[in-house]
Amino acid sequence: MAISKEKITEITDDDIEDLAFGCALLGTGGGGSVGGAILETRSAIRKFGSVEVVQLKDLPADGLVMPICGIGAPTISFEMLNNGGEAYLLRQEVERVFNKPVVAIMASEIGGSNGVEPVMWASRLGLPIVDADTMGRAFPEVQMGSFFVRGLPLTPIILVDFQGNVVTITPTSGASAESDSRAFTIAAGGVALMADYINPAATMIGNVIVGSLSTAIEIGRAVRGSTDPIRKLSLLLGAQTLITGKISEIKRRTDAGFVRGSVTISGTGIDADREVRIEIQNENLIATENGRVLASVPDLISVLDTQTGAAISTEEAKYAMRVTAMAWPCDPLWRTAQGLKTVGPRAFGYDIEYVPVENSPR
Amino acid sequence: MKLDLRVGMDVGGTNTDAVVLDANNRILARTKQATTADVRLGMKAALSNVISSIGPDAHRIRRIMLGTTHATNAILERRSLGRVAAIRLGAPASLSLEPMESWPRDLRDAVCVDTCILRGGHYVDGRRISLLDKDGIRKFLIGVARNVDAVAITSIFSPTSPEDEVRAHEIVKEVLGSNVAVSLSHEIGSLGLLERENATILNAALFGVVGQVITAMQDVIDGAGLAVEMLLAQNDGTLMALDFAKRFPILTIGSGPANSLRGAAFLSGLSNTIVVDVGGTSTDFGVLVNGYPRESAAAVEIGGVRTNFRMPDLLSVAIGGGTIISGTAEQPIVGPKSVGYRLTSDALVYGGSTPTLSDALVVEGRFELGTHNVQASELARLKSALRNVNEFIADSIDQVTLGNTHLPLVAVGGAASLIPDDIKGVSQVIYPENGDVANAIGAAIAWVSGHWQGVVQIDDGFNTAVANGRTMACNRAIEAGADPQQVEVIEQIETPLSYLVTPTVRLIIKAAGPLNHL
Question: Structure pTM?
Answer without folding.
Answer: 0.85
